[in-house]
């Protein structure tokens, strides 16, 4: 079992739908990152959070430290949101990654 | 452009070749990382350099040899690789202190070993 687990592994939705990706972790972390990886491989950091909730545009990330759980939400999803979304827990100066969630938004 | 530049973007090499991957950042970060991403697997940490000193080596085979000549540049030297080493190799940088947690990733080098 991975120290950082994401669900679902694959998600296909129609444009405009509300998307939720979940991340649970079993290790002690000081912060949790949500990353976006587009085809071709480049990774972009979306959020880093250690408590509560953050919002950027149509993206919202929440974390519950007690339950060791984080969620990434996308409102009014668009085909350009199609990517792999990765959560990563920050341990002692290194990141422990989940396996990623492949999101496909159809027009 | 994220601030972390990796070259080349794609590399095909034979098992007897020697090649190097290059990573460069001018973000003022003082820690740099090599990650390996194989198909359908989470990213795996290979090496961490902080203040130009290697502080972590995750039992990576000796056919991978990192080099960090200064805080802005990181290399991964490759020799006598195996086909299973084919993967996406990602470089990242961050600030090595508790006040800043941001990581910046490069676009990766997609390596194919034939």
Description:
The complex is a heterodimer of chains A (107) and B (114). The radius of gyration of chain A is 13 Å and the shape is globular. Chain A is mainly β. Helices cover 0% and strands 60% of the residues of chain A. Chain A has no helices and eleven strands. In chain B, the strands form two sheets. In chain B, strands 2, 4, 5, 6, 9, 10 and 11 form a seven-stranded mixed beta sheet that branches.
> What are the secondary-structure elements of chain A, in order, as H or E?
EEEEEEEEEEE
What is the rounded Rg of chain A? 13 Å
Number of strands of chain B: 11
The average pLDDT score of chain A comes to: 90
Low-confidence stretches of chain A: none
| Biggest pleated sheet of chain B | 7 strands, mixed
**Continuous helix count of chain A:** 0
* Termini separation of chain A: 35 Å
Largest sheet of chain A: 6 strands, mixed
| Class by SSE composition of chain A | mainly beta
**Which secondary-structure class do the elements of chain B indicate?**
mainly beta
Q: Total helix count of chain B? A: 0
State the oligomer.
heterodimer
**Shape, per Cα inertia axes of chain A:** globular
Fraction of helical residues of chain A: under 10%
Number of strands of chain A: 11
Pick out the low-confidence regions of chain B: none
Q: Approximately what portion of the residues of chain A adopt beta-strand conformation? A: over 45%
């Amino acid at each position: 079992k991975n120290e950082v687990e994401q669900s679902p592994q694959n998600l296909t939705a129609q444009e405009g739908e509300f998307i939720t990706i979940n991340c649970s972790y079993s290790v002690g972390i000081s912060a949790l990152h949500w990353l976006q990886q587009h085809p071709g491989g480049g990774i972009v950091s979306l959020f880093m959070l250690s408590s509560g909730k953050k919002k950027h545009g149509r993206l919202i990330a929440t974390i519950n430290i007690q339950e060791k759980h984080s969620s990434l939400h996308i409102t009014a999803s668009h085909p350009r949101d199609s990517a792999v979304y990765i959560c990563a827990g920050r341990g002692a100066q290194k990141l422990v990654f989940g396996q990623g969630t492949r999101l496909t938004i159809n027009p | 452009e994220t601030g972390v530049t990796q070259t080349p973007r794609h590399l095909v090499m034979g098992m007897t070749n020697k090649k190097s991957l290059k990573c460069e950042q001018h973000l003022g970060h003082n820690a740099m990382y090599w990650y390996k991403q194989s198909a359908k697997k989470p990213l795996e940490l290979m090496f961490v350099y902080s203040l130009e000193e290697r502080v972590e080596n995750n039992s990576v085979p000796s056919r991978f040899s990192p080099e960090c000549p200064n805080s802005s540049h990181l290399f991964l030297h490759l020799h006598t690789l195996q086909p299973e080493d084919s993967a996406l190799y990602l470089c990242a940088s961050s600030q090595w202190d508790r006040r800043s947690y941001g990581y910046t990733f490069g676009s990766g080098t997609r390596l194919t070993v034939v």
